[in-house]
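Students often ask why we bother predicting the structure of a whole assembly rather than each chain alone. The short answer is interfaces. A chain on its own may look different once its partners are present, and contacts between molecules only exist in the joint model. In this exercise we take two input lines together and write out one structure for the complete complex. Read the inputs first and try to guess which parts will touch.
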Amino acid sequence: MTHSFQIHRRALLSGVTAGIGLAYAGRAGAQPRAGRNKLIMVVARGAMDGLSVTIPYQDPDYAVLRGGLAISPPGQEDGALALSDGFGLHPALATLHGLHGNGQLRFAPAVAIPARIRSHFDAQDVLENGGGRLREQNDGWLNRALAATGGNGLSIGAQTPLILRGATPISSWAPGGNVRGGDRIASLLQDLYVDHPMLGDSLARGLETEALAAMSDDGAPVRRNDAGGMGQAVGRLMTGEAGADLVALSVDGWDTHARQRAQMQSRLTGLDQLIGGLRAGLGEEWDRTIVVVTTEFGRTVRVNGTQGTDHGTASSLLLSGGALKSGGPIGDWPTLAENRLFEGRDLAPTLDVRSVFKGVLRDHIGVDRAVLDTQVFPDSAREAPGVSGLV
Amino acid sequence: MPSVPALDAAIALTRFGLGAGPGGIAEVSHDPRAWLDAQIRPQGAPLPPGPFTSTGERTQQMLDYQSQTTAAQRPAQPVRGTMPEPSPGMSATDSGSEDQPMADPTAQARFDARQASRRALTRQTAMDFLARARFGVTTDDGFAERWALFWANLLTVSATKFQARLFVGPFEHEAIRPHVFGRFEDLVVAAEQHPAMLLYLDQARSSGPNSQAGRRRNAGLNENLAREALELHTVGAASGYTQADVTELARALTGWSVPTARDQGGRRGRRQQAAMQADTDGFIFRANSHEPGERTVMGRRYAEAGVEQGEAILRDLANRPETARRMAHRIATHFVADAPPPALVSALEQAWIGSRGDLSVVARALIASPDAWRSEASKIKTPYEFILSTHRALGTTPERIEPLQQALIQMGQPAFTPPSPEGWPDTAADWAGPDALVKRLNWATTVGGRAEADDPENVAVQALGPRLGERTRLSVARAESRPEAMILFLMSPEFQSR
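Now the answer. The structure tokens for the assembled complex follow.
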């Protein structure tokens, strides 16, 4: 047991509220929006196992409880990549580890949504609607943040996720476009769509983004499953005058009920390539960017009967980007001690995930604190005060 | 002025079915409701024309493939990203392999053989999908087809997992279609016991910790299927079941499994065979993996039993009022409107409860409800519905899987691979986003450029009947070229919705 773990446990025992026990001084007031700072929300769908992402290798219960899914400590074969405070990154996350060396990676080891739900779909709903409960809001918090700040919203993929749905129109894009026919068809179709509540606006936005992608494309089409190429394409769509500012994209396949070790290796390799690609595509804009990787909930601490894990509670969250201020873990580590596990099976949350989102939106994107507390994340002032010191 | 029967016929073919082809609306106009009603048959929804290999035969294919795997040994796990979504691997050149070649030539040969098998099995599933699409384009029973697809999507299995991929075609043929006009409880049990579901939701290897096998191998529970059975297949999350209910159902379902190579041969095999009840459909119950003891799920107690224990729980869940309410809302949302009329939901719920989940009664209640026939077409077609209805309108059939799959990938609904057990989404917000519409326009441009129809306006009239608005009709008629006219028709609000 290391010193840092003792500190964390003590902080928890003394009842220090999550998010306030951080060692960073808060900034007074919000940054002006003038710099067009960028935010990319990466939602890992299917419940990403945080214990395989930010590995608490110095927690004395980790190796025992994780059995065949445990990642070795740094320095050993296939061992974790050392971070700080007794944590390491999964060995597949080499690019992210490099960012950590530059002070461009932070992590929260035990965050959760405010509702205790183990259904993927309901939990994703809460994660994305930004309320305290299921279906509390019909739209997504990133869309409401967009309403508060202006700027361009962009959803990646054929379908817009809830997090970006809402009253403020956004664009969407996925690889594979090759629009022919030009403006004439577009204009004729707009005449047909004049009375339709959705089709006209949707098509106009789609064509606009497609034109942008065609301009910024260096000629190489993005292949499906090419995470790095995908990241680069998205990054490029965020550059220039018309570039997107608030972006949401989903990464699937994290529901690792069986054979988790191999699956995580593959998924995390993809995630690492995606973020490397985003950085490359963003170019200089990377310095104005924060990428958040989050998930609906974590997975059981113990291994199940099929070398996987079942639905749990807290998971980890990753922040990366050139705009980030370097520092240690965000929020406390609950430890994996038996009496600390949530319902005797899950990693216990020490921080409401909204606190991190709010810290980023306030200090990086410049959303007013009151707007965050009442509109973007309604009634969240007490339960989830924004984390300070991230930028 | 178009007659009302013609409008009802257009609605019957487009909203309840998969679209109208030339002459279809005129044919159905004499009695649209009777046309729908005649498709409700006790034997279920028709199967696409075969021949298909059965679930039992595919089980044998799976075992053969597994023995190849063992022979080929398992090379190091790959380092390959799978973003932004796992490869559906449905194309003929499946790149979804997990393995990398190795230096030893014998091992290399075995590896190549295994890859060839993998591609052949994936190809077989792609052909199942093509057969279903072709059937959807040519069938006269469009409502039965849509009704079957609806239930297949409720009880989702996805080809994203290789082993489940072998079985998704037979799953629809054997577990879904025969039961869609029968009792819902029979449909649920058939689906949960099918190898496709047992493999997709990790049930096949779940063992009771206190069962013989569990104690011997230190194996344990996997609660994936149990959770989705509650949350997605029956009562739904709003019903208030707890984690304890999930765990109890998971215990009751232990032993529900599929054969493995070990069951087949060798000294151990004979012993194991004695301990399980095999079924010709690929489902087996492993008594020695079944958790002993009585179970309590949603307040009801179930005595210690074998396979019957899980079946009894599922049947009770299928018949609970929460299930009736949830399914009524889902049916109305799928067929009529993203925010369905409450009177329609209520009528379906009453029909469900009154018949104890007799799906033929529920289907008839849908047809009987005036709310289902309102003239406003507020549902946006899914990509699959859009593509099939286009073929129907043009009188063409998809000949090859590759272009079909390419179009479906682009529009966000790749063949047999819904992204999660929740199945494909079902609202306009899901399908008509900016990028999705651009991809529909791309496809319409390709199809419109190739269409050989002499008279695009007539194609539109035949496909939409009185649903074709004057603005669209004029726009199609005044287009400067035939391809342009076809694009305008295919992308018109009337054709995009149903």
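Check your guess against this: DSSP finds 27 helices and five strands in chain B.
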